[in-house]
Design brief:
With 165 residues, this protein is mainly alpha-helical. The protein has six helices and three strands, in the order ααβααβαβα. About 8% of the residues have low confidence.
């Protein structure tokens, strides 16, 4: 099953659940609003699946390939841990780095699967400033086990993408 098929199935379940639960939550919404929300969810999920499968339309650093950066540039790397959830990391990427929802999801998924991902490239000072912003974001309030900020390091891009010889 591809990401697209999985996400479409989840989106359709949201549409069905929305139609079946018109009286919940106790908020004054029109019954058709749930269907519209479900259809929007299907669109977002299909868009995210397409981006994950093709890598097109993303504004995130590449995983593999040619070395696209100068030797004097640095990267801010976010590391995976078990005390920060997807929602927290996605919101952090959106708030602190200006990522769109799809890009933030793709990068969060990359962090989860590979253990780390470069989320910003710039000068050492710029990356350090952004690292401090990640630290100031603090722990994930949704997880009681989260007692500190997400681990972020500044690394030279030349070390992350060594020259091939």
């Amino acid at each position: 099953m591809t990401f697209r098929q999985l996400f479409v199935a989840v989106g359709l379940l949201l549409v069905v659940a929305g139609i079946a639960t018109v009286n919940w939550p106790p908020v004054v919404w029109e019954p058709g609003e749930y269907t519209r929300m479900g259809l929007v969810a299907v669109g977002l999920l299909v868009s995210a699946a397409t981006a994950i499968e093709t890598g097109k339309g993303l504004n995130v650093p590449p995983v593999l390939g040619e070395r696209p950066y100068r030797d004097d540039e640095c990267g801010l790397v976010l590391h995976n841990d078990e005390t920060h959830g997807y929602a927290y990391v996605i919101q952090l990427l959106r708030d602190e780095f200006g990522f769109g929802l799809t890009d933030a999801f793709v990068v969060t998924d990359r962090i989860s699967k590979t253990g780390r991902a470069v989320v910003h490239v710039g000068s050492w000072g710029d990356c350090e400033e952004r690292r401090r912003a990640v630290e100031l974001a603090g722990p994930d309030p949704a997880l009681p086990a989260s007692t500190g900020p997400l681990v972020a390091t500044v690394e030279r891009m030349a070390d992350l993408w060594p020259a091939r010889g």
